[in-house]
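Hi all, posting the design record for the shared folder.

TITLE: backbone redesign
STEP: 1 of 1
STRUCTURE INPUT:
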């Protein structure tokens, strides 16, 4: 009997170990919750003070505290690490809120994040400032970008669309109220098109007007025609459409002036114009010319884009510009337009210079990370803005059919904008599904 129980115990132990090994590979969230989180929490608690001391994240205590420690507590005066205010576990990692002592700043912890990652045995450590004097250490227990799953609560709302997952397990949200103009760069097969599909799929659910500019004869954006208010597929059509958008911007400024406000969102809801998102698929096609006769058209396009990028935010017109490369070699006005595009998302690029075009002027530290994105991870990118902060993100795979289905489902949300009616794309009627024939067959007779 004892031999049988030993066999059962050994079998149970092997089965449990095998189950944990399977969960570590196929269900990392489950493995982290059962094993990784308790181990990491304990390691963090035991080694916190020594790790902070070794990493140079401690400061000398105040004179009062040193006096009390030396004369009342009769102990040696030791350097003081940041004080732990809160520790909580998540399905992807560990969140620790710290109160910084005088003499430390968030940049000190950011500089030591790689050393903290190795000390506590986690996949990544990012530092976010929550309020003055407080930071949050966001530890990720495993590679959340290997299989991208957006958090359950990530839903499009107002003018914000969750389009990707950050390396710390939170959703990367494209918020047009906070970052009205953005530039997305990436080489072929880098995931740039998938990023745009996620964006269109989320925007289709919102009460906004979508305007597409796709000079590749519409091969990318014509599939989303049921939800588009306007679509331009050639440089000539793009120039005319951008002129109409500039006219729409000026008429909205007249409306703001009439009501004595400086922002569209200060208008009463019943007279507030609908927001417009302009999606430019390949910006280089708007700059390049093949002959001198095209220079006038190019000047019209560049001038209109720069005017929209500089002023259109206040009247609810937003730019989403995509391209493989966007530098001064495109010609006059390219650098000026790029400077107006606050948000930057850079996928895998073919050279470091392209990464510098997108990130060097807003987050220089992110250039190296963007240059090291592997080709076998499409959809991975570096997102940054003018605040200097940046994060590695990855877009969940969204097929073209899924984006098309969302556009068809929410086609009734296309707003009424008479100025854009001439550019409204043709939507072919759905062919009826084949059914049984209603013709009664007649017998063949001689």
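Okay, here is what came back for every position:
SEQUENCE:
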């Amino acid at each position: 009997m004892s031999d049988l129980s030993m066999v059962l115990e050994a079998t149970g132990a092997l089965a449990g170990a095998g189950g944990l090994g399977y969960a570590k590979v196929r269900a990392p969230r489950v493995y982290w919750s059962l094993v990784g989180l308790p181990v990491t929490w304990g390691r963090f608690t035991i080694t916190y003070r020594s790790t902070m001391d070794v990493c140079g994240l401690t400061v000398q205590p105040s004179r009062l505290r040193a006096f009390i420690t030396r004369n009342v507590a009769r102990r040696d005066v030791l350097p003081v690490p940041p004080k732990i205010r809160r520790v909580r576990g998540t399905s992807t990692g560990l969140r620790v809120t710290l109160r910084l002592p005088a003499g430390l700043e968030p940049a000190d912890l950011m500089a030591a994040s790689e050393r903290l990652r190795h000390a506590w045995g986690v996949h990544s450590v990012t530092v976010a400032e929550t309020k003055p004097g407080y930071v949050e250490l966001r530890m990720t227990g495993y590679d959340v970008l290997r299989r991208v799953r957006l958090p359950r609560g990530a839903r499009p709302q107002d003018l914000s669309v969750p389009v990707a997952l950050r390396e710390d397990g939170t959703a990367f949200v494209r918020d047009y109220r906070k970052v009205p103009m953005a530039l997305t760069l990436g080489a072929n097969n880098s995931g740039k098109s998938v990023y745009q599909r996620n964006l269109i799929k989320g925007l289709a659910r919102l009460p906004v007007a979508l305007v597409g500019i796709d000079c590749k004869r519409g091969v990318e954006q014509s599939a989303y025609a049921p939800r588009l208010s306007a679509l331009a597929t050639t440089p000539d059509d793009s120039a005319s459409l951008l002129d109409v958008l500039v006219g729409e911007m000026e008429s909205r400024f007249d409306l703001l002036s009439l009501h004595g406000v400086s922002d569209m969102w200060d208008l009463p809801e019943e007279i507030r114009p609908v927001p417009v998102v302009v999606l430019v698929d390949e910006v280089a096609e708007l700059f390049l010319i093949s002959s001198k006769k095209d220079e006038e058209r190019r000047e019209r396009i560049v001038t209109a884009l720069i005017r929209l990028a500089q002023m259109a935010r206040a009247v609810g017109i937003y730019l989403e510009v995509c391209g493989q490369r966007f530098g001064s070699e495109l010609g006059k006005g390219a650098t000026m337009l790029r400077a107006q595009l606050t948000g930057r998302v850079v996928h895998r690029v073919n050279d470091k210079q392209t990464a510098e075009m997108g990130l060097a002027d807003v987050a220089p530290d992110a250039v190296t990370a963007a240059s090291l994105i592997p080709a076998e991870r499409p959809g991975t990118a570096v997102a940054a803005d003018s605040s200097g902060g940046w994060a590695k993100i990855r877009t969940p795979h969204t097929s073209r059919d899924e984006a098309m289905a969302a556009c068809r489902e929410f086609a009734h949300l296309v707003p009424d904008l008479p100025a854009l009616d001439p550019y409204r794309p043709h939507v072919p009627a759905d062919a009826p599904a084949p059914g049984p024939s209603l013709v009664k067959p007649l017998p063949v007779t001689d």
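COMMENT: The chain has 13 helices and 14 strands.
Let me know if anyone wants the other runs.
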